[in-house]
Structures are given as C-alpha cells and as structure tokens.
C-alpha cells in the first residue's frame, strides 16, 4: 500500500528515476516513484541504442529486453561515401518497454514503491521548504510528504521549475525528433547507421538502429533552431522514401532530446534533478539512458546518505552534483563544445571526415579518432577531446 | 498559442524550450497558458509535428 510519507519521492519512472529509486532504497531510504503513464517505458520516445559497458553495472543483461546486438557503426557522408567503425565495443538495441519495467522491478525488489497513472502536479511547501508532492491519481488530488524530491521527469523538466530551477533550454540546445519503427526492410547485420548532411538532417543526423534482421528504428533529429517550417517529419519521409521505399511503418513517435551541457543547478534544498530533466545527455549522440543511470546511481546514494544524516540542504546534496561533475559533467561540456562546432559544419567537411576515416585501419578506428579528426584545426578543442577520452578510459579501469 | 490536439503527440518538447513556464503536460494533453505566454514562438518552432499555431 502507498504510505502518506516517504523519505524520498521520485517523479518519473524511466531509467533515471528507477535507478535513483533502487540506489536510495538499497541504502536504507523509503522511496516512492510516481509515473504519469500507465506503464514505465511507454510510449517509447527513444532510439533504444546503448552500450553493453554502459548498462551492465546497473542490471544483469537479460534477453527479454535485448532486441539486437550492435558491433559496427556505419557513417554516411553527404556525398554518399561511407566509413565503418568497429571499435566501440558491444552495443544493444533495447526493448525499452521491457527494459524500463525490469529496472522498476529491480527498484521494487530493494523496497521502492511505485504508482503508475500518477500525475505529479506540484510540490508541497511549508515555510519556503519543499515538504512533499501533490499528484492526481484516479481523478483525485492526493498529497505525499517527503524530505527529498527527485525530479526524473524527462525532457519537460517541470519539477525543477516548480523548485525555482531554470531548466528551459535554448532552441539550439534541443533536437526535435521523429522516429519510425520500420518493418520489411533490408539492413546490414549488427550495424547501426548514421547519415549526415545539411540536406538530410540540418544540425543533426538520421539513424538506423536495427531491432531484428528486417526491422529497425529509423529516426531523425534536427537542431531546434534549424528545423524551420519543414520540420523533422518531412526530412525523415524523404529519407525513408529513398532508402526504404517498400518499408511498412509499425510505430511512429515524436520527441525532443536536450543537447546542452548539464544544468548549472541540479540540486537545491530538498530537491535533486536526474537524467534528461537535469540535461544529462550526450550532446553529440543524444544518448541519455546510460548518462541518466550513472547520475541517478550517484543521486540515489547521496539522497539515502542525506536521509541517514538528516541533512536535506543543498550543501549536503551537492555531493551529488560535484561527483557528477567529476564523473561525466566535464566530459559532457567538452562534447557540448564539439556539438556547437557540428552545428555549423559544412557538407564538405563531413565528406572529408568520412574520407579520412576510410583510410584508418579497421582495428584503429574508434570514436576518439573520429572526434579528433572532426575538431582538427581547433587545437584547444582537440586537447579537450583527447583529455575526455583519456579520462573515460581511466574511469573504466 | 494554440495546440492542435489531433496532431499533438504529448511529447513535451515544447515544455523544454518555454522560457515562461506556460506549458502544462498531463498523460492525455498539453495545454498552453496564454496568460503566461510571452509569444516567443519557441514551442511552435521546436514542435516535431507542427501541432502549435499562433492565436488563442
């Protein structure tokens, strides 16, 4: 049964929310998750690609939520030339619907509670202090008291706004996206594909993430300020018509991906933000699942420590933001600087990068080589990129 | 601002770019509070399905 009071209430039961819940509960806190939709993970607003190394620390790999395995990334230049990248380690295309529920089940196993179809409406305040959450459930307005609220409410990030945190992003810092799941198509095995170019997807890219040997998530993200009147759907329709003229669409979804640096402020007294809500997304790839889970694991643990020490002030909760900054926040900022460069990149430059990549031996070609070539001519950024990769290697050890 | 409910997919992208906190999302609909709206047109520009139009 749902109680009237918990140590921690988490708004949103996506990967960030459920991982925060699990780590908080595992460390002794009482936790309630409020999920607006009828089931965690739906509607799926995600290309569903993740790396094995990214998710393995958080959940045992289970075939139930793996649609396909990815070993190769194929890049398509605007002029049609391609390069294949083999050294990024094993990746998966997920079944987010099953994956998100599995993460919630794991949180539940550690004692966290969850209500679905529970729509958070506002924070509760007493003497200018956050003391709980107001939500709608089965047509009724309800309240739940708590010491810490964790906002894991995705791209909208309204919970942060209720607390007075500025979560709005610039048009340049959001990708506006459409994705189809296509059936009856010919695709390459174990390969995800990326198409670049100002005619294909200005300020973004088109992706093909296989879900089986004849189905795939095929989507597009355009930078918000470049989507103009045409919008992402027309670009995607043109692409699909050309590349997969006989495809059948089995799923259509729209969405936005924040591509900024992490928000300056992700904690205040009695509140923490995680995942897309904190803008913890890789600004180049748009990948947010793994970043959100890493942030949430830190946040969940810090929140449980806060409960144990009865310290709910921003100063204590900042242990989360400073650990995040060390772990990935800094790298994300480097990626953000690179993204700004991508936004103004000419088709010719993309062609040159792909041509350069073709010449690299198969065993030496990975993301680092690609990024270094992409920022050539900008020595400061090259150093930052090199540092970011060295750091991520060290952390993995 | 006005939302064409037949087009809207309730994805929340508009909310992320609203500087005035004028957009509310629930499981079944998105609403714009025109009293708070500053007519910056960010939501209209970013909407992936072009479901937002000018006007009340």
What does this structure look like?
The complex is a heterodimer of chains A (397) and B (56). Chain A is an alpha/beta fold. In chain A, the strands form 4 sheets. In chain A, strands 6-5-14-15-16-13-17 form a 7-stranded mixed sheet. A 6-stranded mixed sheet of chain A has the order 8-2-1-12-19-18. A 3-stranded antiparallel sheet of chain A has the order 3-7-4. Chain A has helices spanning 15-26, 52-55, 96-109, 158-162, 231-243, 289-309, 314-343, 347-358, 367-374, 379-396, and strands spanning 8-11, 31-34, 49-51, 66-70, 72-76, 82-85, 91-94, 113-115, 118-126, 129-137, 140-145, 148-151, 174-183, 191-195, 205-210, 215-223, 248-258, 267-268, 271-273. Chain A has 3 domains: 8-46 and 97-170 and 261-328, FAD/NAD(P)-binding domain (3-Layer(bba) Sandwich); 71-88 and 171-258, D-Amino Acid Oxidase, subunit A, domain 2 (D-Amino Acid Oxidase, Chain A, domain 2, 2-Layer Sandwich); 336-396, no CATH class. Chain A is globular. Chain A contains 10 helices and 19 strands. In chain A, strand 1, helix 1 and strand 2 (31-34) form a beta-alpha-beta unit. Chain A starts with 7 loop residues before the first strand and ends with a helix. With 56 residues, chain B is of the alpha+beta class. Chain B is 16% helix and 18% strand. Chain B is built from 2 helices and 4 strands; from the N terminus they run E-H-E-E-H-E. Chain B has a two-stranded antiparallel ribbon with strand order 1-4. The longest helix of chain B has 5 residues, at 42-46. Chains A and B meet through strand 13, helix 5 and strand 17 of A and helix 1 and helix 2 of B.
